[in-house]
User: Which sequence fits this backbone?
């Protein structure tokens, strides 16, 4: 096993993940699913992200996605599969990834040797991913790898994202943080989605949010008024511990890739992700404390 520099895997994840997750923020997936009558933004997201799991109901998605209100999930599942089968949605999602990357990165980048190199490195990293206890990752690992390099990279980014995400859910559960406590504490640390975006997309109410803040204050993890709550020293320490434990559980792909390969993948995907951000792949108000 190769020893990596501290947080090398996390740094790589941070630039690989947007290549996958951008498809849920750009209009491409919604446009692909609209002909099937799937137009509500939450329905588009749940269908697109859950399709690899098969024709699942709200219980499975609530459990695996972790931070959505169960009522919001139940509003769309399993009914969305009556509009389009999971297989149909998977095909639509791949078309959306193709159009998104071509539109935001440009044909030159899509066809570049750097794209092919990044795809090869990312796929090599996924060779060390593990399925046990990782349902979202495992469902994606059953899918074929696309032939086109930019789609192979998107697929590998999806695998790496959900491999870490599944591990992070386990870490949150071990820490005793429920879904909204995880979101509130993440946002209070200046990271993650903004409270307004969480409330608009995750199904929680302002009352839910403020009650969660109060619970975290009672645990000594949060301080300050609801509109400007911040993590206490203990809260900062907990969030640091959560990320470090997630790093540990997600280290295998990057250890397998090695220090030089991880650094190169970080460099390549950093450039691609920077281009996505510059092209407006994510809404400006989606992240931060605003």
Assistant:
């Amino acid at each position: 096993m190769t020893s990596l520099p501290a947080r090398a895997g996390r740094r790589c994840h941070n630039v690989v993940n947007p290549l996958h997750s951008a498809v849920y923020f750009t209009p491409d997936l919604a446009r692909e699913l609209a002909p099937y009558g799937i137009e509500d933004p939450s329905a588009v997201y749940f269908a697109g992200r859950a399709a690899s799991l098969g024709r699942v109901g709200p219980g499975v998605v609530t459990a695996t996605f972790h931070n959505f209100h169960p009522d919001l999930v139940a509003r769309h599942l399993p009914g969305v599969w009556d509009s389009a089968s999971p297989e149909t949605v998977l095909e639509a999602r791949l078309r959306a990834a193709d159009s998104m990357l071509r539109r935001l990165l440009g044909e030159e980048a899509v066809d570049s040797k750097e794209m092919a190199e990044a795809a090869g490195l990312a796929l090599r990293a996924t060779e060390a991913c593990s399925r046990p206890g990782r349902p979202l990752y495992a469902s994606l690992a059953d899918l074929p790898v696309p032939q086109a390099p930019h789609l192979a990279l998107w697929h590998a980014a999806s695998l790496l994202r959900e491999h870490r995400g599944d591990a992070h859910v386990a870490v949150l559960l071990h820490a005793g943080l429920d879904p909204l406590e995880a979101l509130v504490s993440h946002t209070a640390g200046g990271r993650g989605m903004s409270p307004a975006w969480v409330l608009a997309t995750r199904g929680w109410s302002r009352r839910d949010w403020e009650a969660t803040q109060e619970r975290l204050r009672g645990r000594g993890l949060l301080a300050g008024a609801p509109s400007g709550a911040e993590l206490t020293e203990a809260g900062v320490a907990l969030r640091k511990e959560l990320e470090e434990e997630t790093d540990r559980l997600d280290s295998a792909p990057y250890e397998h890739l090695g220090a030089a390969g991880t650094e190169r993948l970080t460099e390549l995907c950093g450039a691609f992700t920077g281009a996505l951000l510059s092209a407006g792949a994510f809404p400006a108000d989606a992240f931060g404390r605003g």
About this structure: The chain is about 65% helix and 0% strand. The chain has one domain: 8-174+242-278. The longest helix spans residues 149-175.
